[in-house]
Amino acid sequence: MRTIGVGIIGWGFMGKTHAQALRSLPLFYPNAGFEVALRCVCARHLENAEAAARAAGFEHYTDDYRELLARADIDVVSICTPNDQHEEMALAAIRVGKHVYIDKPLAVTADSAARIAAAAAESPVLTRMVFNNRYLPATLRAKQLVEEGRIGEVLTFSARYLHSGSIDPDKPIGWKQQLQGGVVLDLGSHALDLLTWLVGMPRRVLCKTFTLYADRPTRDGGREQALSEDHAQMVLELENGAVGSVEASKIATGSNDELTLEVRGTNGALRWSSMDINWLYFYDNTLPEADYGGLRGFTQIECVGRYPAPGGKFLPPKNSVGWERGHLHCYYTFLDAVARGVPTEGDIADGARLQTLMEALRRSAETNAWIDFEAFEGRT
Predict the structure, then answer these.
(1) What residue ranges define each of the domains in the chain, with the CATH number in brackets?
(2) Distance CA 186, CA 345 (A)
(3) What's the pTM value of the predicted model, to 2 decimals?
């Protein structure tokens, strides 16, 4: 059985999430055909890296990502750092032949993302964007229904990703509220990826953004005025003329971590919510009308934990899944591809195209005008 050595760069929320997924793989995917060794973790401060190594069982730790990349026993590198560090670290990892598992968004700008994608295209390494919401049973079932033609031609669609963490004017900002962040890159990237994964890329886009406060407090007692957007309302038009909306907000009062999706077509419709994560709702528009309704109506599909083998046994498939399960399956499918040496979907090329879409949306917000995405993509 092949052993895949993994190193994680960054020990914030996502670094811990990746480590949790890696540590859980042997339980959730027995007989996977590979095993994982947690070789090294890198954090900004050495004492944090040491604490991370103790907590998660890494063999080594460092505060210099270059030291991690130099290790011959590391095959895969997880990049879990702030957005503006992704390009430097991803390019360095690709240069030394490490497979790259990188959190979204790929970069801060489309140009930066394109440089990473170009390097990956010229290298034999495998890459994966952490599009974790693609890897839940309900969203995977939604993809099946679309590919089977059960939705038909798309007529309308919507996606919303809502938080409420930026309402408090006295809460010190982090990097996600500064110019390398914003809700389009942070939350919008998930909503846009999930939606375009199902319905395809748009031909043109329109966007309006809103920043709640003129300045916010910093952690050192100062004030910052160079802030990113707190709310974005986006309109996407598909090649067939269908028009839908995407909303991303961190000032959505009353929300927690709420990602919702709806797609309606000529043959059927589907809807899903991360707050109702175990179920996919599907409407079969091909069923005939009948007295008392017949069988027409939304069907609640019990996706729950029904992954294909070698998953789907622990926890039992009837047990409910949580948010972290998408991360676990995303990592499993990538490492399975690495172990078998086969291409993988949702790679850095996909991440770069998503980055270009988000930049087109930001350009639309700046100009208050529709942006032809195909023409914009050709210029970047």
Answers:
(1) 2-133 (3.40.50.720), 137-319 (3.30.360.10)
(2) 21
(3) 0.96
